[in-house]
Every structure is written in structure tokens, then in C-alpha cells.
Specification:
Elements lengths: L1 E5 L2 E3 L7 E2 L1 E5 L2 E6 L1 H5 L5 E4 L4 E4 L1 E6 L1 H9 L1 E2 L6 H15 L4 E6 L12 H5 L7 E5 L4 E4 L1 H9 L5 H4 L2 E2 L4 E3 L6 H4 L5 H17 L2 E6 L10 H13 L6 E6 L3 H8 L12 E9 L29 H12 L5 E5 L2 H17 L8 E4 L5 H10 L2 E4 L4 H4 L3 H5 L1 H4 L5 H7 L3 E3 L10 H10 L17 H7 L2 H6 L17 E4 L16 E6 L2 E5 L1
Parallel strand pairs: 1-6, 2-7, 8-15, 9-10, 10-11, 15-16, 16-17, 17-18, 18-19, 19-20, 20-21
Antiparallel strand pairs: 1-4, 2-3, 4-5, 7-22, 11-12, 12-14, 13-14, 22-23, 23-24
Length: 527
């Protein structure tokens, strides 16, 4: 199939930032870039008049949880709830409507709720005293559960004592690894359910103009082995059912790691829609939950330095296991103490077994310092950032870490000025995978209401923000030679927008409409 899009504003996003009127794709690759008159003089199987619309490389999101997003579309989504009473009402309504055997939800944030506190066991018991109830905070690092859920947790056999230590049986709160314990409580799902989650996830992504995601999916669905999850993605690709590229950020226990290596993608594969990417690890929690590892602790609790997921020796061991197999790592680190520990572990692994071509990275890289950023540059680490996070965090960050440390948070411009590779994501469902709103946050440094600006000196240009989700994101998955820019021979992934991002006020980016999303030359979404 030879397809042409003409009469548009096509921006290459390569180093030249060349503008064209038309782009043509054949057999999945770009075969034409130029003016409309020259394009229309050629033979095409299908043509589309863009009527002045903008064309960019397909959007990428370099850190999210696609199946988590879909899971809560099928269960209970609590994003934006204004009170604990609202949580109770929503959940009761769901039980009355569907009569489920359990209830799983996500999205509450005590900072935005009328009560100004976290839900407790007593609150969750108002939902049900008959079925287990588990409601995750928006960051997914804390969950509130009812008495039935707590009884089920007590009855579990062989649970790691470290995980159980993060269960507050009195208040019904689960922290860090314990927040995933629902997968041991709730019934196992079948393959059809998982595939339905994938379809739900990619449908939403395509509508947002996204053609590639770096997604953490392997430890999300109850009863699904990580190795089997890989096989389900590949089965859907073989059947022509995948409509988005998935570069899996592989969260795999050490006990499963050797089995996982047997199904790992060929590191040289640049064409498969599903590929296993870096090993995903988590070293700390979140600022909102006061579990991010902070060197100086928290303003109102100096003795609280956060919750480390691993000891320093464990972190090194898990990173080293991937590094020795030339598998990149992407490590969640929000606090500066976690950031430092990750750098130390990667440095040690690299010193013992040099791998100059590694693309190890830090997910979030939120709380930094000039010294940590210089270390990041020297070590060749990349940063997976989420500009959209500042919408919520700018209102709490000073009260968490103090004015001085708050100035070292979300320092994206400093990263780029140092030459650190940076790419953009949403961490959905923590925040929506709205790339245009994400760009707005990166450029304006404002909250969505436009009432507050956070460190405006760290704002990015429009070009820099677009690159976070196109060319720079392609580098993050080692794909800079095949996609991320619009050049002849590159993979035909495009997004069509109704306005030119380089000519409008960035505050209005969220109002821009995605008109069409093209993957490998095939339209996977059209408004």
C-alpha cells in the first residue's frame, strides 16, 4: 500500500527541522518528503488532503503502565475524587451494579480531598464488609483496604516478611511492595482478559497520537506469569492485533530473571511491535506518600528518609545481573538519596564489567542537585521525566522537602544543558497519557489552572518539548536510526494535529486535536 498525505505542515524533527508539505509511505517506510505538487505527480494507492494540518513523528511515552491504565478502566477509577465519601459512593455504586467478588481501584490523592487525609480501614469497610476492597493512591505506592482484604493478607502463606512489614493492619494501609499484594488475593485472570486489557490500552493511546510506549506491564495482572505475559503480547502481534509499539520496561523478580532472559527480545530488533527493553527496578516511593528516599528527610519529619525498596547490595546485585547481559536498566528514583544509590550501583557494575554502549536510566529523576546531574552526565545515564507531574507536585513540594531542596526538583533544562539524554512520559495512570498537556507543562511550568508557575528558569522550548516525545524518545529505546524523525527510509509512524504547535500559545496545547495516528503507514486512529 502506497499512501500520501499532502497539503500539510510536515515537520521532520531531525537536526535541520525541515518543513515539507507532503509525506508518503510505502510498505511501512517513508518514501517521499517534499511539496504537494511533486507528490501528486506520482502514483499513489491512497491520498489524503491534510487541509493545512500539522504532521509530526508519532508520539512516544517513555514511561507508563498501559495495563494498569486499562485495568482501572475496567474496575474503579478514582482520579480527581474530592472526598473519601465520594470514593465510598463510587465503590458502592459499582458493587450494586456489577456484584463483583472483589473491588480494585486507583486514583485518590489525599492532598485534593476534603478530609485532607488518607482513607483508612474504617472508610473502606463502609464500602463492603463482605468482599475484599483495595484502593490505590494515584502514585500506586500506597493502597487503602478493608478488613476483609486484611484478613486475606493475614492468611497468605510464604509472603516475604519485608513486604508484610509495609502492611499497616490497624489503619488498613499498604505501602510500596505491599500495595501490589492484591495480585495474591484476587482471582487469577485468563488470557482473554489480559488481551482485552491490551486492546483497551492501545485504543486510548492511539487516540492520543501515541505510536510507541515504554510500558511496565509484567507485574500488574493477578496470576499472570511475566514470561507468559510476553508470549501474549507476541501472540497479539503475530495476529495483527497490536496497534502501538510496546517497548517493555521489564519488572521481573530475581527468581524469574533467568527464565525471562530466555524470552528476551533480540537487542538488535528494531522492527517488532513488541520488544522487551530495559530491566525495570524501583528504589523508592513517592513524595506524596513521603516514601521517596531523601537525604535530609522531610520538613515535618526529619527522621523519615523514605522507604528504600532494596538494600544497596540488593540494588547493585539486580542492576549487575542485567548489566552483565547487556540489558539496560530503568530504575525508579524520586528522592535524591535513591538517585545517589542508583548512580553508585550502576557505577560499580560498569567498573567491574565495562559496557560503553549502555543506556541505563533513572525513571523520574525528580530530586537532584548540580553534583548529581554532573554525575549523571559523566556516567552516561538517561532521564525518563514526566513534566505533567509538576501540576500536582508544585503545590506540595516545598512543604515536603523545603524551599532550598524544592529548587533542585524537576530541573529538566539543566539536564538538557549538560547534554543528558532526556525523554518524556506520563507514568499513566498516575497522570493521563495526554502528550500535548505534558508538553504544555514542560514549556510553561504552570499548573493546569494557570495559577502557579514552578521554577520558570527550567522551562523548555517548544522544540525541546516536542523532541521529548519524538526524536529524544526514540533514542531512549535505541531507535534513533529508524524512527523518531521524518526522514526517507524511516518507519512510517505519524501523528496529524489540527494546529501547528510551533505557531500557537503553548497554554492552548491541550485544546489541539489529534486528527489521525499512523503506525507503519497504517491508520490506527482517525477522528
Amino acid at each position: 500500500m502506497k499512501r500520501l498525505w499532502y497539503n500539510g505542515r510536515v515537520v521532520s524533527m531531525d537536526s535541520q527541522m525541515t518543513r515539507y508539505e507532503a509525506v508518503g509511505i510505502e510498505d511501512g517506510n517513508i518514501v517521499f518528503l517534499g511539496d504537494s505538487q511533486t507528490a501528486l505527480a506520482q502514483t499513489w494507492d491512497e491520498t489524503r488532503d491534510l487541509e493545512g494540518a500539522m504532521v509530526l513523528p508519532g508520539f512516544n511515552d517513555t514511561h507508563l503502565h498501559m495495563l494498569y491504565y486499562a485495568l482501572f478502566q475496567k474496575n474503579v477509577a478514582l482520579f480527581g475524587v474530592g472526598s473519601i465519601d465520594e470514593i465510598v459512593d463510587l465503590c458502592r455504586a459499582r458493587i450494586e451494579k456489577d456484584h463483583p467478588d472483589y473491588l480494585l481501584g486507583m486514583g485518590w490523592n489525599q492532598e485534593n480531598m476534603r478530609e485532607g487525609r488518607m482513607p483508612t480501614r474504617e472508610d473502606m469497610d463502609r464500602i463492603s464488609t463482605e468482599i475484599p476492597v483495595c484502593m490505590l493512591r494515584t502514585c500506586a505506592h500506597i493502597a487503602a483496604c478493608n478488613s476483609v482484604m486484611l484478613e486475606r493478607i493475614r492468611a497468605l502463606k510464604g509472603v516475604d516478611p519485608e513486604v508484610l512489614s509495609h502492611v499497616d493492619f490497624i489503619n488498613g494501609l499498604l505501602r510500596e511492595d505491599a500495595a501490589r499484594i492484591y495480585m495474591d488475593i484476587f482471582p487469577k485472570t485468563d488470557d482473554a482478559y489480559v488481551k482485552d486489557l491490551i486492546r483497551i490500552g492501545q485504543k486510548g493511546l492511539n487516540a492520543a497520537g501515541i505510536t510507541c510506549v515504554h510500558s511496565d506491564d509484567l507485574k500488574v495482572v493477578a496470576g499472570v506469569d511475566p514470561v507468559h505475559m510476553v508470549s501474549l503480547f507476541r501472540e497479539m502481534e503475530a495476529n495483527g492485533e497490536l496497534t502501538v509499539r510496546v517497548y517493555e520496561q521489564c519488572l521481573v523478580d530475581q527468581a524469574d530473571f533467568d527464565r525471562f532472559l530466555a524470552v528476551r527480545s533480540d537487542p538488535n530488533d528494531r522492527t517488532s511491535l513488541f520488544r522487551t527493553g530495559p530491566r525495570k527496578l524501583l528504589q523508592d516511593g513517592s513524595l506524596g506518600a513521603k516514601s521517596a528516599e531523601m537525604i535530609d528527610g522531610y520538613v515535618d519529619d526529619r527522621d523519615n528518609h523514605g522507604i528504600p525498596i532494596y538494600t544497596e547490595e540488593e540494588l547493585y546485585s539486580w542492576i549487575k545481573a542485567a548489566h552483565d547481559h547487556h540489558m539496560d536498566v530503568a530504575v525508579h528514583a524520586i528522592g535524591d538519596l535513591a538517585f545517589q544509590k542508583v548512580c553508585d550501583a550502576i557505577y560499580k557494575a560498569e567498573q567491574e564489567a565495562p559496557w560503553p554502549d549502555h543506556r541505563h536510566g533513572i525513571v523520574h529523576a525528580q530530586t537532584t542537585s548540580p553534583a548529581l546531574l554532573r554525575l549523571m552526565k559523566v556516567m552516561g545515564l538517561q532521564a525518563y521525566i514526566q513534566p505533567i507531574f509538576i501540576d500536582a507536585d508544585m503545590h506540595i513540594i516545598e512543604e515536603r522537602v523545603g524551599e532550598r531542596r524544592a529548587k533542585d526538583c524537576y530541573n529538566w533544562k539543566s539536564m538538557l544543558d549538560l547534554g543528558i539524554h532526556v525523554s518524556g512520559g506520563s507514568d499513566c495512570p498516575v497522570e493521563p497519557f495526554d502528550v500535548l498537556d505534558n508538553m504544555r507543562a514542560a514549556i510553561t511550568r504552570k499548573d493546569r489552572a494557570g495559577t502557579k508557575t514552578y521554577l520558570p528558569e527550567q522551562a523548555l522550548t517548544v522544540e525541546e518539548a516536542v523532541r521529548l516525545f519524538t526524536s529524544d524518545a526514540a533514542w531512549a529505546s535505541r531507535d534513533e536510526g529508524v524512527r523518531g524523525t521524518l526522514e526517507l527510509g524511516r518507519q512510517g509512524d505519524l501523528v496529524v494535529l489540527d494546529q501547528d504547535l510551533f505557531e500557537i500559545d503553548p497554554d492552548t496545547f491541550p485544546q489541539v486535536k489529534v486528527l489521525e495516528t499512523i503506525l507503519n503507514g497504517n491508520t490506527v486512529y482517525r477522528a
